[in-house]
Amino acid sequence: MASVQKSDAVSVPVTIDDVRAAHVRVAPSIVRTPIMHSRTLSTLTGANVWLKFENLQFTAAYKERGALNKLCLLTEDKKARGVIAASAGNHAQGLAYHGARLGIPVTIVMPKSTPTVKVQQTEGHGARVVLIGERFDDASEAAVLMAEAEGLTFVHPFDDPDTIAGQGTVTLEMLQDAPEIDTLIVPIGGGGLISGAAVVARSHSKPVQVIGVQAELYPSMYAKMKGVTLPCAGDTLAEGIAVKQPGGITAGIVEAMVDDIVLVAERELEHAVAMLLQIEKTVAEGAGAAGLAALLTHPERFRGRNVGIILTGGNIDTRLLANVLLRDLARSGRLARLRIAMQDRPGALFHVARVFDEQQVNIVGIDHQRVFTTLPAKGTIADIECETRDAPHLERLLQALRAEGYDVTQIEAA
């Protein structure tokens, strides 16, 4: 894959001094999240993997760094008037939290379709929430108009030099704590985080590659940098980076300083979320796990390198997380749903269950179907959900059932 060309002689609106100054401002009020070397992920991928746990911030996301830096740089008059933003996610939480802490009034505009829990969380930090429109674009346009009408300062979630400088403090800490890192994998939505990361990486004492990652459903920055037209739509697990139009400032920095951008599929995002919980015992949202998803998708690209991955956030709905984990178990063969055709007579299910017992497979659910089936009237279908140790164990069960004469179909996970 061709790399995005970098220019050494380029003027960007954010410098390493801006990032360092931002760190002085925000450091007393944020968590200096740990960066840890993952032996297990390193063994699995062939790279030396370091994880930066930004999901351990108070609002569970890195976004509060940029929001806080912007708030700190406001004049006293602007602080008194208040700020406004359009966001239904981590930017809203970070701005609301630090605005309340600093005594700055915060208004957040959200689409009417925003889940109630996100509205309540934002209001819980003391922000005024205004619900306008059906789409995020509607909310964003309304926020700009409200800013003008009420004299509020609009705080952009990514396309602002002060915000970018604040987000760059993540990478500043990473390279201070793990200077051996030579490659950064950074999720891209609008581009604020990777812009700050690139500024810091270019000032490091040794070369550091910066690789961006986007969800395949929302390849906006990828398409812009590659000069191609790609659709941006769909229900992605990584809603935190589901941005249809990247920023103008951030696109300029990415074009000048970022080495390449890769795409990851939904399946790999789900797998990365599950792996982080199973291996690192940490919860990451879809966007937060995108860096690891890129490493899993393109292992040959990073093999042997010292890779830094930012776990950008951990705000994921618990029901969605449960669904992701169960789907990952199904794909790995540890959870399966088998459709078995049998005769509808006493003892039929007992004989099927005997095979499961012999193979030491746990049955967790059974669903009979006698009406909606193409079998004869004396036939029945049983959908049996079961737990196995791994894929080979599941295969042994399938072979044993077929050896007993049963017609068995495995219902594949999505």
Summarize the structure in short.
The protein has 414 residues and is α/β, with parallel strands linked by helices.
Give the distance, in angstroms, between the N- and C-terminal Cα atoms.
28 Å
CATH architecture of the largest domain: 3-Layer(aba) Sandwich
Please report the first level of CATH classification, the CATH class of the largest domain.
Alpha Beta
Number of strands: 14
Beta-strand fraction estimate: 15-25%
Unreliable stretches: 1-5
* Overall geometry: globular
Radius of gyration: 25 Å
What is the count of structural domains?
A: 3
Would you tell me which CATH topology of the largest domain applies?
A: Rossmann fold
Describe what you observe in this structure.
Residues 337-414 form the ACT domain. This protein is an alpha/beta fold and 414 residues long. The protein has 3 domains: 16-62 and 160-327, Rossmann fold; 83-151, 3-Layer(aba) Sandwich (Rossmann fold), CATH 3.40.50; 333-410, ACT domain (Alpha-Beta Plaits, 2-Layer Sandwich). It is 43% helix and 19% strand. The chain is built from 17 helices and 14 strands. It has helices at 16-26, 39-45, 63-72, 76-81, 90-102, 116-124, 136-150, 161-177, 192-202, 220-226, 248-257, 266-279, 290-297, 299-302, 318-331, 348-358, 391-403; strands at residues 35-38, 48-53, 83-86, 106-110, 128-131, 153-154, 183-187, 209-215, 260-264, 306-311, 335-343, 362-369, 379-387, 407-410. It has a 6-stranded mixed beta sheet. A 4-stranded parallel beta sheet has the order 5-4-3-6, with helices on both faces. The model is unreliable at 1-5 (pLDDT under 50).
